Amino acid sequence: MPKGRQKVPHLDAPLGLPTCLWLELAGLFLLVPWVMGLAGTGGPDGQGTGGPSWAVHLESLEGDGEEETLEQQADALAQAAGLVNAGRIGELQGHYLFVQPAGHRPALEVEAIRQQVEAVLAGHEAVRWHSEQRLLRRAKRSVHFNDPKYPQQWHLNNRRSPGRDINVTGVWERNVTGRGVTVVVVDDGVEHTIQDIAPNYSPEGSYDLNSNDPDPMPHPDVENGNHHGTRCAGEIAAVPNNSFCAVGVAYGSRIAGIRVLDGPLTDSMEAVAFNKHYQINDIYSCSWGPDDDGKTVDGPHQLGK
């Protein structure tokens, strides 16, 4: 027998079914009001409430700032406002949640209570700040896309060999997607009318240096069709969740194009391409270079540098 436990007198016979049932029902009726009371206030941890509630920031009238003193003030103030002090809000010193006592009330009565509470809190000298709590709309971050090619983009999310990718999904979950940034692809043009690029296309950051006009649309040829710049643009800023193709690594960014590789190229043309519309473009993407490694035989010349 554990210490501190009192022995229960032995009963010669077990309780009958009616007696047991009566005891269970009695316990249930005693429990229900207690549970309903918790549901009405929510408590300081859950802070859920079925009726109006207020967050209140108090400062001690005595100036000591002790939590015990603040707690007493909170209790008295909540009672004066016709509310219940549900306790401190997390670890925020001096911040308390006042809730309306449980019980259904007509809408007119609730509004009258709300006005009374606001008057009491606004007029109390210890209240530094108060705010009625409203329901907030929050959406879970998601990196699930309906683009058919996304499962094959192992460089973004490698499902077969987790970890062998560029680890960008965690950045997306923090809502960092390139929004507010314009990337310009300096290449053989950008087919900006296709479904994955058009919504993010930036015409104001684009130009065609080969044809000397504002439209960087590629000019297909027999050899390769000039698709390279368009593919690069898609890798950067392809629109997600449009049930088409793939997802860009910075799918929230704007994408521009500078067409310069579809014709004779000089040092001065490279220099223009590297700073064209720099007031708009934040990042210049150049996935090309000399035939060698870009420094042994040839590389950027004076103006390009």
Automatic annotation (TrEMBL):
Signal peptide span = none
Q: Where is this region: Disordered?
A: 197-219
One GO term (biological process): proteolysis
Q: Which InterPro entries does the record cross-reference, listed alphabetically?
A: Peptidase_S8/S53_dom, Peptidase_S8/S53_dom_sf, Peptidase_S8_His-AS, Peptidase_S8_subtilisin-rel, S8_pro-domain, S8_pro-domain_sf
Q: Which UniProt keywords apply?
A: Hydrolase, Membrane, Protease, Serine protease, Transmembrane, Transmembrane helix
Instruction: Provide any one GO MF term from the record.
Output: serine-type endopeptidase activity
Instruction: Show the stretches that span the lipid bilayer.
Output: 21-39
> What residues does the Peptidase S8 pro-domain domain cover?
53-141
Where in the numbering of this chain does the Peptidase S8/S53 domain appear? 178-302
SUPFAM superfamilies found in the cross-reference section:
Protease propeptides/inhibitors (SSF54897), Subtilisin-like (SSF52743)
- Which top-level group of life is the source organism from? Eukaryota
Which PANTHER family does this one have?
PROPROTEIN CONVERTASE SUBTILISIN/KEXIN-RELATED, PROPROTEIN CONVERTASE SUBTILISIN_KEXIN TYPE 7
**Similarity comment: family membership:** Belongs to the peptidase S8 family.
What is the protein name given in its UniProt record?
Answer: Proprotein convertase subtilisin/kexin type 7
Q: Which organism is it from?
A: Homo sapiens (Human)
Q: What is the lineage of its organism?
A: Eukaryota, Metazoa, Chordata, Craniata, Vertebrata
